[in-house]
Amino acid sequence: MAEVETRELTVPGATLRYDIRSAPTGDTPDENILFLVGSPMDAVGFTTLASYFTDRTVVTYDPRGTARSQRHDGAAQSTPEEHADDLRHVIEALDAGAVDVFASSGGAVNALALVERHGDLVRTLVAHEPPAAQVLPDREAALAVIADIHATYLRDGMGPAMAKFIAVSGRKGLFPADWADEPAPDPAAFGLPTQDDGSRDDPLLGQNLLTCTGHQPDFTALQSAPTRIVIAVGQESEGELAARAATRIAERLGLAPAVFPSHHGGFLGGEYGQHGAPEAFAKALRHTLEDSN
């Protein structure tokens, strides 16, 4: 097991904590850093995936407002632009030049925002299923569904809102205009609480859901960036919102999406009680990164 060094970085509006798993002595860190990025998922979610890259220096972090990274700005929500700036600060603090980035879900949206602004800091970006609903052909219905999840959270709490989120994120195909007429899913069916505990500090439902899915990528900036961009989708995710958005982004960039094993959380090895196919996923990621060298 690689030793993990945790560092702290103060940035505008937040204190970030990030972890460095150093490559074995003799490797050249400035040519080997792999930054694993999620949002609002914290560094714990990449524990299994990082274990397959012990030959590289691996960096993980907790996004602002999540786990060990505290927000001080008092804002109700965090934006992809803020997260992108945080990623920039972490990469610059490493003082090792451009890095490779694997980013998933909201982290992929934030990493795309980073490349739009600071492509010189990222050698290769593998953006796995960024749920940027703005690019979808059914964007109006999709964004209305997402707004309803957020409103449900503010009104009824985590259980009912998360039940809707799970149902929506796993739904195949376009969202119909009459989606609001469909019955709401039962939180108990997902093992979620049915009672509202009054808290409203969930980093997904409260802080990042609207801003992440509502982000419009700057395709001109992405195409002109020096970064090699790979847009990835899960083999089992076809038709789901995040995979559909990823496919549309790839098309706009003139790319064919890379198909990775498993589903939206295919790299998970039991973190948060969820399982993908992490060994096969890591092999696909390594192959993709090596193709850029």
Automatic annotation (TrEMBL):
Regions of compositional bias (Basic and acidic residues) in chain numbering: 70-83
Matching Pfam families: Abhydrolase_1 (PF00561)
Gene3D superfamilies xrefs: alpha/beta hydrolase (3.40.50.1820)
Domain AB hydrolase-1: 33-145
Keyword Transcription annotated: no
Single GO molecular function: hydrolase activity
InterPro entries: AB_hydrolase_1, AB_hydrolase_fold
Location of the region described as Disordered in the Swiss-Prot/TrEMBL record: 64-83
Entry keyword set: Hydrolase
Name assigned to this protein: Hydrolase
